Amino acid sequence: MEVIAGTKSQDEKTKTPLLPQGEQLGSDQPPAVVPMKRRDISRAADTIHNAYLHHDLITYFSSADTAPFRATRAKARYALAFDGGICQNRVLTVDGGMSALKYQVPRGRKDPWPHVFAEAVLRKLTDTRELVKRTREFADTTKALVVDAFGSTVADMYEIQGLGTAPEVQGRGYASALVTAVTDLADADGHDVWVVTTDAYTFYERLGFSVVRSATVGDANPAWEGAPIVVRIVRLTFAVFTRYTVMSERSLVVDAPTHQRIPVW
Prior knowledge:
eight-stranded mixed beta sheet; two-stranded antiparallel ribbon; 37% helix; disordered N terminus; disordered C terminus
Protein backbone atom coordinates (compact mmCIF):
# COMPACT_ATOMS: atom_id res chain seq x y z
CA MET A 1 0.00 0.00 0.00
CA GLU A 2 1.43 3.37 -0.98
CA VAL A 3 0.14 6.92 -0.62
CA ILE A 4 1.92 9.68 -2.53
CA ALA A 5 1.39 13.09 -1.00
CA GLY A 6 3.49 15.30 -3.24
CA THR A 7 6.27 15.80 -0.69
CA LYS A 8 9.80 14.54 -1.11
CA SER A 9 9.82 10.83 -0.41
CA GLN A 10 11.92 9.24 2.29
CA ASP A 11 13.84 7.25 -0.31
CA GLU A 12 14.72 10.45 -2.16
CA LYS A 13 16.19 11.88 1.04
CA THR A 14 18.41 8.96 1.98
CA LYS A 15 19.75 5.69 0.71
CA THR A 16 19.61 2.49 2.69
CA PRO A 17 22.98 2.07 4.40
CA LEU A 18 24.89 -1.16 4.03
CA LEU A 19 23.77 -3.12 7.04
CA PRO A 20 26.36 -4.62 9.39
CA GLN A 21 27.34 -8.10 8.34
CA GLY A 22 27.50 -10.98 10.77
CA GLU A 23 29.90 -13.88 10.76
CA GLN A 24 29.52 -17.01 8.68
CA LEU A 25 26.81 -19.54 9.45
CA GLY A 26 27.63 -21.60 12.50
CA SER A 27 28.89 -18.71 14.63
CA ASP A 28 27.00 -16.91 17.36
CA GLN A 29 26.64 -13.83 15.17
CA PRO A 30 23.38 -13.07 13.33
CA PRO A 31 23.06 -13.83 9.60
CA ALA A 32 24.60 -11.27 7.26
CA VAL A 33 21.87 -8.97 5.88
CA VAL A 34 22.84 -7.00 2.78
CA PRO A 35 21.06 -5.15 -0.05
CA MET A 36 20.13 -7.56 -2.85
CA LYS A 37 22.03 -7.45 -6.13
CA ARG A 38 20.55 -8.30 -9.51
CA ARG A 39 22.64 -11.44 -9.68
CA ASP A 40 20.57 -12.74 -6.73
CA ILE A 41 17.15 -12.19 -8.37
CA SER A 42 16.82 -15.62 -9.99
CA ARG A 43 17.60 -17.45 -6.77
CA ALA A 44 15.36 -15.12 -4.77
CA ALA A 45 12.43 -15.73 -7.15
CA ASP A 46 12.92 -19.48 -6.68
CA THR A 47 13.07 -18.94 -2.92
CA ILE A 48 9.75 -17.11 -2.75
CA HIS A 49 8.06 -19.60 -5.07
CA ASN A 50 9.21 -22.60 -3.05
CA ALA A 51 8.55 -20.97 0.31
CA TYR A 52 4.92 -20.22 -0.58
CA LEU A 53 4.17 -23.25 -2.73
CA HIS A 54 1.65 -24.65 -0.23
CA HIS A 55 0.72 -21.37 1.46
CA ASP A 56 -3.00 -20.94 2.15
CA LEU A 57 -3.42 -17.68 0.24
CA ILE A 58 -1.24 -18.79 -2.68
CA THR A 59 -3.29 -21.99 -2.89
CA TYR A 60 -6.45 -19.87 -2.99
CA PHE A 61 -5.05 -18.04 -6.01
CA SER A 62 -3.30 -20.92 -7.78
CA SER A 63 -6.37 -23.19 -7.67
CA ALA A 64 -8.07 -20.66 -9.94
CA ASP A 65 -5.08 -20.34 -12.27
CA THR A 66 -5.50 -22.79 -15.13
CA ALA A 67 -3.16 -21.15 -17.66
CA PRO A 68 0.01 -23.04 -18.65
CA PHE A 69 3.46 -22.46 -17.14
CA ARG A 70 2.07 -21.34 -13.80
CA ALA A 71 5.34 -21.77 -11.90
CA THR A 72 7.34 -19.94 -14.56
CA ARG A 73 4.88 -17.05 -14.57
CA ALA A 74 4.91 -16.83 -10.78
CA LYS A 75 8.70 -16.67 -10.69
CA ALA A 76 8.67 -14.01 -13.41
CA ARG A 77 6.37 -11.84 -11.30
CA TYR A 78 8.58 -12.30 -8.23
CA ALA A 79 11.63 -11.39 -10.31
CA LEU A 80 9.92 -8.22 -11.57
CA ALA A 81 9.00 -7.24 -8.02
CA PHE A 82 12.56 -7.74 -6.79
CA ASP A 83 14.07 -5.86 -9.72
CA GLY A 84 11.70 -2.96 -9.10
CA GLY A 85 12.71 -2.93 -5.44
CA ILE A 86 16.40 -3.06 -6.28
CA CYS A 87 15.95 0.04 -8.45
CA GLN A 88 15.01 1.86 -5.23
CA ASN A 89 17.46 -0.01 -2.96
CA ARG A 90 14.52 -1.53 -1.05
CA VAL A 91 15.34 -5.27 -1.13
CA LEU A 92 17.44 -7.09 1.47
CA THR A 93 18.78 -10.62 1.37
CA VAL A 94 20.70 -13.25 3.28
CA ASP A 95 22.98 -15.73 1.51
CA GLY A 96 22.51 -14.40 -2.01
CA GLY A 97 18.74 -14.81 -2.32
CA MET A 98 18.17 -17.80 -0.02
CA SER A 99 16.10 -15.45 2.11
CA ALA A 100 14.74 -12.16 0.80
CA LEU A 101 12.64 -9.22 1.93
CA LYS A 102 11.18 -6.31 -0.01
CA TYR A 103 9.99 -3.24 1.86
CA GLN A 104 8.74 0.29 1.35
CA VAL A 105 9.68 3.47 3.19
CA PRO A 106 7.34 6.28 4.29
CA ARG A 107 5.98 8.13 1.26
CA GLY A 108 8.15 5.99 -0.98
CA ARG A 109 7.86 5.82 -4.73
CA LYS A 110 6.06 3.01 -6.52
CA ASP A 111 7.99 0.44 -8.52
CA PRO A 112 9.24 1.78 -11.89
CA TRP A 113 6.47 1.92 -14.47
CA PRO A 114 8.04 -0.65 -16.85
CA HIS A 115 7.87 -3.25 -14.06
CA VAL A 116 4.27 -2.39 -13.21
CA PHE A 117 3.31 -2.43 -16.89
CA ALA A 118 5.01 -5.78 -17.54
CA GLU A 119 3.24 -7.45 -14.63
CA ALA A 120 -0.12 -5.97 -15.68
CA VAL A 121 0.33 -7.32 -19.21
CA LEU A 122 1.33 -10.74 -17.91
CA ARG A 123 -1.75 -10.93 -15.72
CA LYS A 124 -4.03 -9.62 -18.47
CA LEU A 125 -2.88 -12.34 -20.84
CA THR A 126 -3.05 -15.27 -18.44
CA ASP A 127 -5.29 -14.63 -15.42
CA THR A 128 -8.64 -16.41 -15.52
CA ARG A 129 -11.87 -14.64 -14.60
CA GLU A 130 -12.02 -16.54 -11.32
CA LEU A 131 -8.43 -15.62 -10.47
CA VAL A 132 -9.14 -11.95 -11.18
CA LYS A 133 -12.15 -12.19 -8.87
CA ARG A 134 -10.10 -13.70 -6.04
CA THR A 135 -7.25 -11.27 -6.48
CA ARG A 136 -9.64 -8.34 -6.35
CA GLU A 137 -11.35 -9.80 -3.28
CA PHE A 138 -8.03 -10.00 -1.44
CA ALA A 139 -6.97 -6.50 -2.55
CA ASP A 140 -10.28 -4.93 -1.50
CA THR A 141 -10.26 -6.74 1.85
CA THR A 142 -6.69 -5.68 2.57
CA LYS A 143 -7.33 -2.07 1.57
CA ALA A 144 -10.36 -1.85 3.86
CA LEU A 145 -8.38 -3.27 6.79
CA VAL A 146 -5.49 -0.86 6.24
CA VAL A 147 -7.76 2.17 5.94
CA ASP A 148 -9.66 1.17 9.07
CA ALA A 149 -6.47 0.51 11.04
CA PHE A 150 -4.29 3.41 9.93
CA GLY A 151 -6.19 5.89 7.79
CA SER A 152 -3.89 8.42 6.14
CA THR A 153 -1.09 7.73 8.64
CA VAL A 154 -0.12 4.63 6.63
CA ALA A 155 1.82 6.99 4.35
CA ASP A 156 4.22 7.64 7.24
CA MET A 157 4.95 3.99 7.99
CA TYR A 158 7.39 1.38 6.75
CA GLU A 159 5.78 -1.60 5.02
CA ILE A 160 7.18 -5.11 4.64
CA GLN A 161 5.87 -6.07 1.21
CA GLY A 162 7.28 -9.56 0.83
CA LEU A 163 9.37 -12.01 2.84
CA GLY A 164 10.42 -15.59 2.22
CA THR A 165 13.13 -18.12 3.06
CA ALA A 166 14.04 -21.21 1.05
CA PRO A 167 12.67 -24.34 2.79
CA GLU A 168 16.11 -25.95 3.03
CA VAL A 169 17.51 -23.10 5.17
CA GLN A 170 14.47 -22.28 7.28
CA GLY A 171 15.03 -22.26 11.02
CA ARG A 172 18.40 -20.50 10.84
CA GLY A 173 17.11 -17.05 11.76
CA TYR A 174 17.33 -15.58 8.26
CA ALA A 175 13.80 -14.14 8.18
CA SER A 176 14.10 -12.74 11.70
CA ALA A 177 17.35 -11.01 10.77
CA LEU A 178 15.75 -9.46 7.68
CA VAL A 179 12.71 -8.16 9.56
CA THR A 180 14.91 -6.83 12.36
CA ALA A 181 17.02 -4.96 9.79
CA VAL A 182 13.89 -3.13 8.59
CA THR A 183 12.54 -2.44 12.06
CA ASP A 184 15.94 -1.05 13.05
CA LEU A 185 15.77 1.33 10.07
CA ALA A 186 12.25 2.33 11.11
CA ASP A 187 13.39 2.86 14.71
CA ALA A 188 16.19 5.13 13.53
CA ASP A 189 13.65 7.20 11.56
CA GLY A 190 10.95 7.11 14.26
CA HIS A 191 8.31 5.28 12.19
CA ASP A 192 5.98 2.31 12.67
CA VAL A 193 6.13 -0.85 10.54
CA TRP A 194 3.20 -2.84 9.17
CA VAL A 195 2.70 -5.96 7.08
CA VAL A 196 -0.13 -8.06 5.64
CA THR A 197 0.03 -11.74 6.58
CA THR A 198 -2.18 -14.76 7.01
CA ASP A 199 -0.82 -17.66 9.05
CA ALA A 200 2.61 -16.10 9.71
CA TYR A 201 1.30 -13.63 12.28
CA THR A 202 2.81 -15.59 15.19
CA PHE A 203 6.26 -15.16 13.63
CA TYR A 204 5.78 -11.39 13.63
CA GLU A 205 4.38 -11.43 17.16
CA ARG A 206 7.63 -12.97 18.37
CA LEU A 207 9.40 -9.92 16.91
CA GLY A 208 7.16 -7.46 18.76
CA PHE A 209 4.36 -6.95 16.24
CA SER A 210 0.68 -7.10 17.18
CA VAL A 211 -2.39 -7.99 15.12
CA VAL A 212 -4.47 -4.82 14.71
CA ARG A 213 -7.10 -5.92 12.18
CA SER A 214 -8.27 -9.17 10.56
CA ALA A 215 -10.86 -10.40 8.07
CA THR A 216 -11.49 -13.48 5.94
CA VAL A 217 -11.46 -14.18 2.22
CA GLY A 218 -12.89 -17.17 0.41
CA ASP A 219 -15.75 -17.76 2.86
CA ALA A 220 -18.37 -16.38 0.45
CA ASN A 221 -16.90 -17.96 -2.69
CA PRO A 222 -18.82 -21.10 -3.77
CA ALA A 223 -15.99 -22.07 -6.13
CA TRP A 224 -13.56 -22.40 -3.19
CA GLU A 225 -13.80 -25.67 -1.27
CA GLY A 226 -11.11 -24.88 1.29
CA ALA A 227 -11.39 -23.17 4.64
CA PRO A 228 -11.72 -19.38 4.80
CA ILE A 229 -8.35 -17.61 4.85
CA VAL A 230 -7.76 -15.11 7.62
CA VAL A 231 -5.99 -11.96 6.44
CA ARG A 232 -4.26 -10.06 9.23
CA ILE A 233 -2.66 -6.64 9.50
CA VAL A 234 0.17 -6.62 12.03
CA ARG A 235 1.98 -3.56 13.30
CA LEU A 236 5.10 -2.66 15.23
CA THR A 237 4.66 0.71 16.90
CA PHE A 238 7.48 3.13 17.56
CA ALA A 239 7.09 5.55 20.47
CA VAL A 240 9.37 8.30 21.72
CA PHE A 241 9.41 8.98 25.43
CA THR A 242 11.15 11.88 27.11
CA ARG A 243 12.20 11.25 30.72
CA TYR A 244 12.34 14.18 33.08
CA THR A 245 14.51 14.04 36.18
CA VAL A 246 14.05 16.69 38.84
CA MET A 247 17.48 17.43 40.27
CA SER A 248 16.37 20.21 42.60
CA GLU A 249 13.71 22.86 42.87
CA ARG A 250 15.67 25.06 40.46
CA SER A 251 17.01 22.56 37.96
CA LEU A 252 15.37 20.16 35.54
CA VAL A 253 17.35 17.71 33.44
CA VAL A 254 15.73 16.51 30.24
CA ASP A 255 17.23 13.28 28.93
CA ALA A 256 17.61 12.55 25.25
CA PRO A 257 14.53 10.81 23.79
CA THR A 258 14.40 7.11 24.54
CA HIS A 259 13.24 4.88 21.68
CA GLN A 260 10.99 1.99 22.58
CA ARG A 261 8.74 -0.36 20.61
CA ILE A 262 5.32 -0.94 22.09
CA PRO A 263 2.60 -3.29 20.88
CA VAL A 264 -0.78 -1.99 19.73
CA TRP A 265 -3.88 -3.89 20.72
